[in-house]
Design a protein that fits this description.
Enolase-like, domain 1; Uridine Diphospho-n-acetylenolpyruvylglucosamine Reductase, domain 3; four-stranded antiparallel β-sheet; FAD-bd_PCMH; single chain; 22% strand; binds flavin-adenine dinucleotide; FAD-bd_PCMH-like_sf; Diverse_Substr_Oxidored; 32% helix; 281 residues
Length: 281
């Protein structure tokens, strides 16, 4: 195994780019799952460790208080318990509440969870409109969905995530769901986050939906959202069938053995109150 120690985030990016096949490593809690023997890195593996880079840590308000900036190197438990995250992005804290055990959350980082592509935080960050800050041009941020779309070996170093704050600094109404089979230590099958606009008392509208699953990188469910907008008023089985097709168009597998499109449709329909039959006129 070769370790290439960087002395700055930009150096880390340069080292990775100069060594084909090299990988960034932060807590290594996701990376080790790719190894045949989880206690030993594979022969010839080349890693760029990030955990000594102070510049990747820190949580604070940025852009004159308009965004919450979270360093990619922050441990998941630090993010989950940070007062600014709890106040402005409680959805992210809620997603991290359900991630692994305390030991994993102390080792694993937010950057590693996003770099893994289907970690619990990713759908939550997508519905919060998070932007990815790279290292070469920190002022040029990319929407997280676009950053995640980069090809795997070329996924650039994530320095920080920026979550825009709403006027009045009220956190958006949102929910995070993690669905798994009912067995001890069963890995989650689907991670889903939903966000509404509007005020509950005056009627609210689903404005964002995102999902991730093992092997299925996090994505915004744009077809599901469009289907809901075009089919307001459909309830019960009609709504479930239509939503399931729309989730399949968003790339969620349909049919046997993993009907994640059906699972996502049920969760969305349930949260939008569409599972009950339509009220009689
Ligand atoms: C027992 C156990 C339970 C777990 N349970 C869960 C769970 O419930 N939910 C969940 O989501 N995850 C879970 N995980 C996976 C893992 O712990 C988390 O995803 C964690 O956030 C990964 O962070 P890390 O720092 O360890 O990433 P690493 O393993 O170091 O890296 C993961 C990937 O991200 C890349 N990467 C790391 N940092 C950056 C960066 N700054 N910029 C770009 N790429 C980067 C790496 O190259 C690698 O491809 C579990 C792991 C274990 C061992």
């Amino acid at each position: 195994m070769q370790l290439l120690w960087p002395d700055s985030p930009a150096h880390a990016q340069a080292l990775r780019d100069a060594h084909p096949g090299a990988r960034f490593v932060a807590g290594a809690t996701a990376l080790q799952q790719e190894w045949g023997d989880r206690h030993r890195a594979p022969q010839g593996c080349c890693l760029v460790p990030l955990h000594a880079l102070e510049a990747l840590r820190g949580i604070g308000l940025a852009d004159g208080g308009r965004t919450l900036r979270i360093g990619a190197g922050c441990a998941l438990e630090t993010v989950r318990t940070h007062p600014l995250v709890i106040a402005h992005a409680p959805l992210l804290a809620q997603a991290l509440d359900q991630l692994g055990a305390l030991g994993v959350r102390h080792l694993g980082t937010l950057g590693g969870n996003v770099g893994w592509r289907w970690g619990d935080s990713t759908p939550a960050l997508l519905v919060l409109d998070a932007q990815a800050e790279g290292v070469l041009a920190p002022d040029q941020r990319l929407p997280l969905a676009q950053w995640l779309a980069a090809p795997v070996p070329a996924l650039p170093l994530l320095a920080a995530l920026h979550i825009p704050l709403l006027p009045g600094c009220q956190p958006p109404q949102a929910v995070f769901e993690k669905a798994a089979v009912r067995a001890a230590f069963a890995p989650a099958r689907l991670r889903l986050a939903l966000r509404w606009s509007g005020i509950p008392a005056c009627g609210r509208t689903l404005s964002h939906a995102a999902a991730a699953a093992p092997g299925l990188p996090a994505r915004l469910l744009v077809h599901a959202l469009a289907w809901l907008q075009q089919n307001a008023g459909l309830h019960g089985a009609w709504a479930l069938d239509g939503l399931r097709e729309a989730c399949a168009d968003d790339g969620l597998p349909i049919g046997h053995p993993e009907d994640l499109a059906h699972l996502a449709a049920r969760l969305i329909a349930g949260h939008c109150g569409l599972l009950a039959p339509a009220p009689l006129p």
